[in-house]
Write a structure and sequence with these properties.
The structure holds 2 protein chains of 2 kinds.
Chain A lengths: L4 H22 L18 H5 L10 H6 L8 E7 L4 E8 L4 E7 L8 E5 L15 E8 L6 E8 L3 E8 L2 E5 L1 E2 L2 E7 L6 E8 L4 E5 L5
Antiparallel strand pairs in A: 1-2, 2-3, 3-4, 5-6, 6-10, 7-8, 7-11, 9-10, 11-12
Chain B lengths: L2 H33 L2 E3 L11 E3 L4 E3 L2 E5 L4 E9 L2 E5 L3 E3 L5 E4 L3 E9 L7 E6 L2
Antiparallel strand pairs in B: 1-10, 2-9, 3-9, 4-8, 4-10, 5-6, 5-7, 5-9
The chains are: A alpha+beta, B alpha+beta.
Chain lengths: 211, 130
């Protein structure tokens, strides 16, 4: 087919439009770019066997900022704790990163997300090799202060416990997600989170020092 | 109107439709990005351990997220209301743009990001609205 000037103009407009759209979408968070490690999706069976979830409006911006694979968004658990929360997870950046989020029943409830590279160079050496990632969200909203401990675990994590003010508490595990509501607990009282793996070994993550 | 003219007109129409679709998608994408009203509140100066950036005051916000730039470092994000911390992510390792911590609660807060590591580093802290 012979291209006419009008056709060339249209093709140029399409290329410019698509490029501008991509830049607009990708520019919302983080400017650096590095070589990406291999996909970590296979470490979490929820992403391959779980049921896809609809994108929550409250999470849409974080999913966009992290270049999420929204087709693999999963609800790992729901009806959790004081705020009837949901624990969600999704891979991002081609599977090299994963994110998990705790969302309350209302958008004004305590809610947080963490995106990380389970096996990638972007992580600190202190966290290299950990088969789980915990977050201890403290909030004093609606007159109900306390911590919600939650996170994401590899398939080979069999159990979890957390040291709260010197006492060990079991952390319920639901597939690849875990959650424990700690009403009235200060963030500084949440110490080590310890995971037992399928091979019997344990791993520890100190919330007060290891991040 | 001969056969060649008809084919040419049809092809042009197809290109025009395609162009309109691309423009519409671009507008939708730009609209979504604009609606989020992203606001970076961190400066270019490195934060010392314990140092922080914060928005100048309270505003209605949809998120508050942060990460260290250029390397991994511990940070936390907080929401503050009427001078008191009302939500705290806890200290997490961060490394822009892949590794970051975020508060997702909607509400009227001051957004704050804090270096909870042991060395000084530059950060990127983002919330919605100044």
């Amino acid at each position: 087919m012979k291209l006419r000037p009008l056709h060339l103009l249209l093709i140029a407009a399409i290329v410019v439009g698509a490029t501008a759209g991509s830049i607009t979408a990708a520019g919302s968070f983080g400017k650096a770019s590095r070589s990406q490690p291999p996909s970590a999706v296979g470490l979490y069976s929820a992403f391959t066997h779980g049921r896809p979830a609809a994108v929550d409006a409250q999470l849409a911006d974080t999913m966009s900022a992290s270049n999420a694979d929204s087709a693999k968004l999963r609800v790992l658990a729901s009806g959790l704790g004081r705020f009837n929360s949901r624990l969600l997870a999704f891979p991002s950046r081609g599977g090299s990163s994963v994110c998990y989020s705790l969302l309350g029943a209302q958008p004004t409830d305590p809610a947080a997300s963490y995106c990380y590279q389970p096996t990638g160079p972007a992580m600190s050496k202190a966290l290299a090799g950990e088969h789980f990632s915990p977050m201890a969200l403290w909030a004093s909203l609606g007159g109900r202060p306390g911590v919600q401990l939650f996170g994401l675990a590899f398939d080979d994590v069999r159990s979890l416990r957390v040291n709260v003010a010197g006492n060990w508490r079991n952390v319920p595990l639901s597939g690849n997600g875990f959650y424990l509501d700690l009403p009235g607990v200060a963030q500084s009282d949440v110490g080590a989170v310890e995971a037992t793996l399928a091979n019997g070994s344990t791993q520890s993550h100190d919330m007060r020092s290891a991040g | 109107m001969d056969m060649r003219t008809t084919r040419s007109a049809r092809t042009s129409r197809r290109f025009a439709v395609l162009l309109m679709i691309v423009v519409a998608l671009g507008l939708v994408t730009a609209g979504v990005a604009y609606a989020a009203t992203i606001f970076e509140y961190s400066g270019s100066s490195p934060l010392n351990p314990g140092g922080f950036y914060a928005t100048s005051g309270e505003n209605y916000r949809l998120h508050n997220r942060a990460c260290r730039t250029g390397n991994s470092g511990q940070m936390k994000v907080q929401y503050i209301h009427l001078g008191s911390v009302v939500q705290d992510s806890g200290s997490q390792f961060t490394n822009c743009p892949d590794v970051f911590a975020a508060l997702e609660t909607d509400g009227t807060f001051t957004s704050k990001c804090i270096n909870t590591g042991t060395v000084a580093f530059t950060v990127y802290c983002q919330t919605t609205r100044p």
